[in-house]
Amino acid sequence: MFISNAYAQAAADPLGLGGNLTSFLPLILMFVVMYFLMIRPQQKRAKEQKAMMDALAKGDEVVTAGGILGKVAKVGDVYVTLEVSAGNEMVVQKASITTLLPKGTLKAL
Asked: Among 99, 63, 105, which Cα is nearest to 82's?
């Protein structure tokens, strides 16, 4: 009288995979889209930045993260010596160099 009957549901999918896959499909698609829009381009930029750092040589004209323009006078493992004007040199970390400028850019400024 006070207890109601409980009936089992009839399974539409005998393996039970259809319901689980469709519930996780938006989550999987979100991770795939995030990979192609965020992670992959960031890895590509990091690879290009590392290649530029490895290719730095004496005489290259560069811009640092602080906006300082200079010509590379000496390259070390971690530090780079920049000639910012005639006779003035400063030592910066190699990782702070953001852009490699075309030759002759500093003379045009």
From this structure: 63
